[in-house]
Every structure is written in C-alpha cells, then in structure tokens.
C-alpha cells in the first residue's frame, strides 16, 4: 500500500453553531456543501477538507500539558502574529510551540487542538 494524499480530517464537536463560528469565522476556512444526512459541516482548504461531525459528548480531551503532544490538526498561516491576535481577540487559549519554532497551539470549544504554523 502507498498512501498518496491526505483527503480530510473528521473532528467531533458538541455545538455545531460554535464550531462553525470557530472554523469558519475565526480561522477563516471556506465552508462547502455536503450531502450527508447527519449534522455537521465541511470546510475546504486547497485539496484538503475538514469535516465537523456533531456528537453528544467528546470522548476525550487533551491529556498532555504540551498541547502539541496531543492529537491535533495543523494549518499553515501567512501571518502567525495576526493569527495569534485573532484568537486572543476571541479569548481562545494560546500555547507557543515547546520546540521554539514559529508555531502556536489553540483549542476549539470542544478541546480539539489546532496548531498554526508560520508559512514557510
């Protein structure tokens, strides 16, 4: 087997309205149409998609104090300082990368960890 491309990441959320605000408005992802009958929302990033899936309860929250060592998704951003300020403006928690590289971690309302990297 040879994997040739990552297609999407599915993220469980407990409040679809709040999740759509975070991923669509705060992170600025482009929402796309979806044809599935269960509640959720899809976002397109180039050839990649984020699939939000509405659930009653999140099975687990980040366990490690350094968020980057927990399961997470990573996005490249063109202006890391602007991304950090956007998150702080909405009172989302920020944690710098423990490695010292130009990256920050945040969490959505359900505790899903998101990494934002300075674009190379």
The gist of it:
This protein has 120 residues and is of the alpha/beta class.
What would your notes on this structure say?
- It is a single chain.
- Strand 3 (40-45) and strand 4 (48-54) form a beta hairpin.
- Helix content is 18%, strand content 34%.
- It has 2 domains: 8-54, Roll (2,3-Dihydroxybiphenyl 1,2-Dioxygenase, domain 1); 67-118, 2,3-Dihydroxybiphenyl 1,2-Dioxygenase, domain 1 (Roll).
- It has 120 residues and is an alpha/beta fold.
- The chain has 2 helices and 8 strands; from the N terminus they run E-H-E-E-E-E-H-E-E-E.
- The relative contact order is 0.22.
- The radius of gyration is 14 Å and the shape is globular.
- The strands form 2 sheets. The chain has a 4-stranded mixed β-sheet, with helices on one face. A 4-stranded mixed β-sheet has the order 5-8-7-6, covered by helices on one side.
């Amino acid at each position: 087997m040879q994997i040739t491309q990552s297609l999407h990441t599915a993220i469980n959320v407990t409040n679809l309205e709040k999740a759509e605000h975070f991923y669509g408005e705060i992170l600025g992802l482009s929402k796309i149409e979806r044809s599935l009958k269960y509640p959720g929302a899809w976002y397109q990033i180039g050839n990649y998609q984020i699939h939000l899936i509405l659930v009653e309860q999140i099975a687990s929250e980040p366990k490690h104090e350094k968020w980057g060592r927990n399961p997470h998704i990573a996005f490249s951003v063109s202006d890391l300082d602007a991304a950090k300020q956007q998150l702080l403006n909405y009172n989302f928690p920020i944690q710098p990368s423990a490695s010292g590289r130009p990256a920050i971690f945040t969490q959505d309302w359900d505790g899903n960890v998101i990494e934002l990297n300075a674009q190379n």
